[in-house]
Amino acid sequence: MVADRIVNALKGRSPQALPGNGYKPAAVLLPIQERSDGDYLVLTRRADHLSTHKGQIAFPGGRVDPGDADVIEAALRECYEEIGIGPECVRILGQLDEFTAGYGLVVTPVVGVIPADCEFRINPAETTEVACVPIATLMQPPNCVLSDYLSPGGHPNYHFYVNGWDVWGVTARIIAQFLDLVYGFRVEKS
Length: 190
Fold this sequence. Notes:
By secondary structure, the protein is α+β, with helices and mostly antiparallel strands. It is built from 4 helices and 11 strands. A hairpin with a 2-residue loop joins strand 10 (158-162) and strand 11.
């Protein structure tokens, strides 16, 4: 079962926290579905009219609001706002390391399992598409690439090509860490 695999991979491990340094806290949810034909990762395409990260492929998430109790509550709230999956449908399994992202954000990835039969309700103000991507597909060359070049922020430059999308930036870095920790998969340089 994917939940057991994730819990085992994350237990006894403390997620790496980044120093504040003026960054604004944000959180994303990595929604995982276990289906009869394998494990799936849910990704979204952000709306083109947004002021930041427009049109990018991402996980449901955003800034931590003052009313959020913690990053988990923020990730769950954002998931509900963007794709209509309520907190009661998510089984939280743990967190990955914090990542820096554009616009002065430090992002905490929260990993959770959602039912395979979820009906997504896209909020067009924030999201234009949702895709459930087989995790096995993410690990198949040429769908995953690590460039020889570092990103402008000095980070590894990962790309995952799935669903006709180029998944890059902090989302790709989060996926790479998740695949490494849970599946023992490392993206090779191109």
